[in-house]
Predict the structure.
Amino acid sequence: MAHRLILALSLVLAAPAWGQLADPTRPPPQFVAPAAGSGAVAAAPAVTGLQSVILSRDGKGRPAAVINGEVVRLGEMHGEARLVKVAEDHVVLLGAEGRETLRLMPAAEKTMKVGAGTATGAAESIGMNAIKGESKK
């Protein structure tokens, strides 16, 4: 009986704190529309650069890119430049200032070690000559 009374009392006392807990699944404030009548305006997230490329699987569709939040199809203008190439990881714009390449992930570079595509090359690249049956002398 005493345990139930203590449990009930602790639940009643802790209830006001529950209303103050933040919802961990709620989006950040800049992505949530303001409440009606509050007069507040939600800040739009800063969107710059190349966000996405749109390619068709069958090659029949017209490629496009999402640049600064705007969908630009191949051959169309984006500002003062024309979209002249759409690839899986980049697009090329051609304007008065020349060619400009926009990349989906500018900091990422693909590199491959020579010979790393084979078991022997992989063994050599990590110094495991024993896999090939060789021993260090």
About this structure: Residues 128-132 have pLDDT under 50 and may be disordered. The radius of gyration is 29 Å.
